[in-house]
């Protein structure tokens, strides 16, 4: 991103074809037709029971920064992407439309209208790639993270996957993981940008740097206090734990085990720590954990999990597969209809219906517009989309990251227990189209 | 990234523990010990025959921008990550060490010393996350892309996956794909930042916007000329092709088919185009292609492939799994040794040995340092690492993106034919440690 006077620009994080479509539409006069674009997922990743919406707030910021400054216009001119008339239209671009969407932390299912953009064709078409990049990435990570948090059943979760994904995706992943209930991240930029707590102590390199494990531990404790976490598996774990307690005393905060069969190792470590009087010293495990191995460790004396690769790669589903489709032109529903990739035309909204007990029953997706009515709401039912932008300006009440975190927690409580299982299966609730 | 006077800073794209290790080492005096850190992959992704190194040049730029300006120092102080002495050390941070590495476009195998950082512990330890984020991401994408390019067997490949990955990962993915032999990308920022050719014409939205397919095609041709690519599968493909040739004439550049069973559809399209006299109109296919479906289309009359999701997600291997390990301290090899995750200590280099015919035989990884000798080189053998940074400054002869593209092309020619198969198997050549 090149910085302009107005700050960094997101305008070129865009596919070439959006601007050529714009050029054509400006030329033939269709550019101003009022349109509705919708973001939805045709299906959940294979076997997943629910998806978690994430990235919406990042998208609102990115739309605010979607400006074609002199640097962007020069680039497009030099590369002959579009004609002069289009460049001059782009130079004045500000999004002035309305956007509604599922709030972050809300669950989604196949066909849920996750984001609805109402704007002229010209204003809406250029946001396709940016909207999808952000929502597909962040939702994929949050969806995987939510399963891990569920599997951890209340134990602390530390996100430490930055090294296994693109350096900027790492920052967004830390945010999505926190949204989904992770306790902290290793990523320092995520603290600056999103206010997420960071944590971390030591790698094996620190022990190897020193002349002995005892010296490394002593040094770390001098720098960070006895409440720190000592990494005990550089040489021999039993020896490492003995040395750790010798050096730190029984007040040692925690030990971390990063390799081997962590279940039995955690049991051994607990016994050894207890026998050394370090009864309050916690055990942190890390090393290629995913939701399944986290669940398998439920019976073991583990106090916290450090999760890396599987988190930032969406645990097998690195993208959410959402699409951005034109569904309405000048009040008329439109849809592609040549193949299995069919879409449902028309501006839509959705309600989640619940039993009297509060358990979710179904996602009802319905058409919005003149003469169409919203389904009646029961006591526990709720309309899912909220206003995000009005005439291009951020709407009141867009939730904070902490509020989105709470929203997900309570949304998951309402999911039928079948839908919370880690095993492959159908979506937790069906989607009904009215 | 916050912009400082010196430009954007990458310094916080870092894990918390790197700075706490630094703080401890500064306090106990080990921070200045001369160290060697090595980046390598313990294994290739499941069943892959080779990996492709990518991201090195992005990493060199990121190391240049690894500066703790006032904004970064403030953030670390506010979050109480490290003490005052460490903050003041960081404020002066400039990397002054030496870096060698495999050039971009070079193949790598398990244990290949892809990057070697020689610096004080303090200077080297803080680069771990940044180096791994960039190399793991870009190499994962380039490795998948190279298989796709091989499967396409000379046909044009267009990268169009931006929407299915983080918005900045999209730019890096476009670069990695181009390095691996893709022809062009849809991503406009990749053109600005890396000089990669972009392409793109139309989405289904453009046809849906207009009152008829014919009007949409006419509009596109007026804007982009008859050499453009018309998307013919919005309603009915046969009808779409007929309309396309009617509107554009037989000089139409190309048609794109984005859905359905593209093999038979391409055959039908070819016959229809030929019968309409549009013998030079090319056929572009897209829609959830990966290396296997590209290979399966080899016998079909397809002129170009558009590849999205599978490219940006590394086709099942979204991260390269490289690690950054301390291997030498003050001339003494060091290695973790508690578990299966063993590492080989010592500063290393590597030679790729070849038969007289030029076919690669093995990767020989050997120790470097006093009294150790490089293996003798045969006519086709070559030392793999090149100098990248010397005393913190970019070394002469770091290849350009175009040179890296050429390098990969010729490296792949040397791979035994077994190693070029798409099917799962062992690495194309074994790694021998001396």
Gist?
2 copies of one chain form a homodimer. By secondary structure, chain A is α/β, with parallel strands linked by helices.
Write the layout of secondary structure elements.
Two copies of one chain form a homodimer.
Chain A: E1 3-4, E2 7-8, H1 16-28, E3 34-41, E4 51-52, H2 56-64, H3 70-78, H4 84-91, E5 98-101, E6 107-108, E7 115-120, H5 121-125, H6 128-152, E8 156-159, H7 167-179, E9 184-185, H8 188-194, H9 204-209, H10 213-224, E10 229-231, H11 237-248, E11 254-257, H12 262-275, E12 282-286, H13 291-296, E13 304-307, H14 309-312, E14 322-329, E15 332-333, E16 348-354, E17 360-367, E18 382-383, E19 386-390, E20 393-394, H15 401-413, E21 431-433
Parallel strand pairs in A: 8-9, 8-13, 10-11, 11-12, 12-13, 17-21
Antiparallel strand pairs in A: 1-2, 3-7, 3-14, 4-6, 5-7, 5-19, 14-15, 16-17, 16-18, 19-20
Spatial sequence of strands, sheet with the most strands of chain A:
15-14-3-7-5-19-20
- What is the CATH topology classification name of the largest domain in chain A? nicotinate phosphoribosyltransferase
What's the CATH superfamily of the largest domain in chain A, by name? Answer: nicotinate phosphoribosyltransferase
Could you give the count of β-strands of chain A?
Answer: 21
- Molecular shape of chain A: globular
Total count of domains of chain A: 2
- Rg over CA atoms of chain A: 25 Å
What top-tier CATH class of the largest domain in chain A fits best?
A: Alpha Beta
- Low-pLDDT runs of chain A: none
Question: Beta-strand level of the residues of chain A, as a percent range?
Answer: 15-25%
Distance between the termini of chain A: 42 Å
Major beta-sheet overview of chain A: 7 strands, antiparallel
By CATH, the architecture of the largest domain in chain A is named Alpha-Beta Barrel
User: Helices and strands of chain A: which structural class?
Assistant: alpha/beta
Query: Number of helical runs of chain A?
Result: 15
Helix % of chain A is 25-40%
| Quaternary status | homodimer
Question: Which pair of protein chains has the largest interface, and what are the residue counts?
Answer: A-B, 105 and 104 residues
Query: For the residues shown, what is the average pLDDT of chain A?
Result: 95
């Amino acid at each position: 991103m090149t910085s302009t006077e107005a700050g960094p620009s997101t305008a070129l994080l865009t596919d070439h074809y959006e601007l050529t479509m714009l050029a054509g539409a400006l030329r033939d006069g269709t550019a101003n037709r009022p349109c509705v674009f919708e973001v939805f997922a045709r299906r959940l990743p294979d076997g997943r029971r629910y998806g978690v919406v994430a990235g919406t707030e990042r998208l609102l910021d990115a739309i605010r920064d979607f400006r074609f400054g002199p640097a962007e216009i020069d680039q497009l001119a030099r590369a002959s992407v579009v004609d002069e008339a289009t460049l001059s239209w782009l130079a004045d671009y500000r999004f002035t439309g309305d956007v509604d969407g599922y709030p972050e932390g809300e669950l989604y299912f196949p066909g849920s209208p996750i984001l609805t953009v109402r704007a002229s064709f010209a204003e809406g078409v250029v946001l396709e790639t940016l909207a999808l990049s952000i929502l597909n990435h962040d939702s994929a990570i949050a969806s995987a993270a939510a399963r891990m948090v569920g599997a951890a059943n209340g134990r602390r979760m530390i996100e430490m996957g930055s090294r296994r994904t693109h350096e900027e995706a790492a920052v967004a992943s830390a945010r999505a993981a926190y949204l989904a209930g992770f306790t902290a991240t290793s990523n320092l930029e995520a603290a600056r940008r999103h206010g997420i707590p960071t944590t971390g102590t030591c790698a094996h390199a620190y022990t190897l740097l020193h002349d002995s494990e005892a010296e490394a531990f002593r040094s770390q404790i001098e720098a960070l206090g006895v409440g720190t976490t000592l990494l005990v598996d550089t040489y021999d774990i039993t020896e490492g734990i003995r040395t750790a307690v010798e050096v730190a005393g029984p007040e040692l905060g925690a030990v971390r085990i990063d390799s081997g069969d962590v279940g039995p190792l955690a049991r051994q470590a607990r016994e050894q720590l207890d026998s050394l009087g370090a009864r309050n010293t916690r055990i942190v495990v890390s090393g290629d954990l995913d939701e399944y191995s986290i669940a398998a460790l439920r019976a073991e004396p583990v106090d916290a999990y450090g999760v890396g690769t599987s988190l930032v790669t969406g645990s097998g589903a690195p993208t959410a597969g959402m699409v951005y489709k034109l569904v309405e032109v000048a009040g008329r529903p439109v849809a592609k209809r040549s193949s299995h990739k069919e879409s449902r035309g028309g501006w839509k909204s959705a309600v989640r219906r619940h039993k009297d007990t509060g358990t979710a029953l179904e996602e009802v997706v319905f058409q919005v517009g003149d003469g169409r009515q919203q389904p009646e709401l029961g006591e526990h039912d709720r309309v899912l989309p909220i206003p995000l932008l009005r005439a291009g300006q951020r709407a009141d009440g867009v939730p904070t990251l902490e509020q989105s975190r709470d929203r997900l927690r309570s949304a998951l409580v309402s999911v039928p227990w079948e839908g919370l299982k880690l095993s492959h299966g159908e979506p937790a609730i069906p989607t009904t189209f009215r």
